[in-house]
Amino acid sequence: MTGMKGRSKILAIIGATGSGKSALALAVARQAKAEILSVDSMQIYQGMNIGTAKPSRAEQREIRHHLLDWVRPDETFSVARFVDLAGSIIAESRARDTPLIAVGGTPLYFKSLFHGLFDGPKADAAVRRQLAELTGEQLHEKLREVDPAAAERIHPSDRKRLVRALEVFQLSGRPISSFQNQWSSNAPQNFPAVWVGLRWETAALNRRINARVKEMLASGWVDEVRSLMGQYAEWSDTAGQATGYQILRQHIAGKITLEDAAEQIKIATRQLARRQMKWFRRFPEVQWLEGDRALEQNAQETMRFWKTSQTDCVNPG
User: Fold this and answer.
1) CB contact at 8 A, 2 and 261
2) Residue 82 confidence (pLDDT) above 90
3) H-type helices in the chain, by residue range?
């Protein structure tokens, strides 16, 4: 589309899982002749297609996508590596004068890419071994004692973030929330961007999530997980956190019925959506669109917003 060039601002599309971000990104990319940068911590993994709602092969052939299928499920993938790869893709797309749309549901990846990596102490294996002996409830209670602000934000079932928050406190003597206050949403952006978000009423989004889980299972999700288990005896900690996959592994192992697995996945996905939106609502300068409106209407409004927000941008760095 006239006026949309690679040195224009990146269009960042955010929202909860199941909100319709990918469909909106594809619709806008067709109009703008843009490429898509996946900002999703699980679509990065090869073979994890159905459960991560990865764009189809046909969609990927039509619109060039970046950072899909980048590593194997038995490989660890870090935020720092994502920032490094995504930064290179942004620079390369600007050099080719190609518009870029960043879309995904991983708030930490968005924050780290656009505002810089979180500057806290590095991981400590000994501390993590010690914390691994505690239950999620014990971790949450311990965090509440030393960092009530972080405990308010982190769900008791989110072991990874609980461990990291306690690790930061033990290593630095400072609550993780004090570091995060410095890592402000108002900090200058590393890359000029225009932000669009999709929001839903909670009940409506929950219905979409429930229907999508049912559709994923009908589309062969169990077989996908079974195939991955055959290819990779061990999964990395990060890949193992993909919503639903560990639950389906338990089903395949005969520990729970498929019906129970489906209900657990629906609950876990709804919890994930709430956590995502809790993060995303703190992002500044987001143009929020109603998710239940027609896709074409949201795509046209996004295009207008993106186009009218352009300035002549100099490639950072």
Assistant:
1) no
2) yes
3) 21-32, 57-62, 79-95, 107-115, 125-132, 136-146, 148-153, 159-172, 176-182, 202-218, 221-231, 245-252, 258-280, 295-308
Residues near 81 by beta carbon (within 8 Å), at least 6 away in sequence: none
CATH of domain 10-117+184-308: 3.40.50.300
Is 151:144 a contact under the CB 8 Å cutoff? yes
Q: What is the pTM of this model?
A: 0.81
The residues, ordered by sequence, that sit 6+ positions from 83 with a Cβ below 8 Å of its Cβ are 109, 112, 113, 117
Task: Give the percent of the chain with pLDDT over 90.
Answer: 65
Amino acid at 223: D
Rounded mean pLDDT of the chain? 89
Half-sphere exposure of 172 (CA within 13 A, CB side): 19
The set of residues, in sequence order, having a beta carbon less than 8 Å from that of 243 and lying 6+ positions away, is: 17, 42, 51, 265, 268, 269, 272
Write out pLDDT tens, residues 23-41.
999 999 999 999 999 999 9
Considering the segment(s) 125-182 as one domain, its CATH architecture is Orthogonal Bundle (1.10)
pLDDT at site 147? 84
Residues of the chain with CATH 3.40.50.300: 10-117+184-308
Helix pair angle (136-146, 159-172), 10° resolution? 40
Nearest alpha carbon to residue 37 among 62, 12, 73, 54: 12
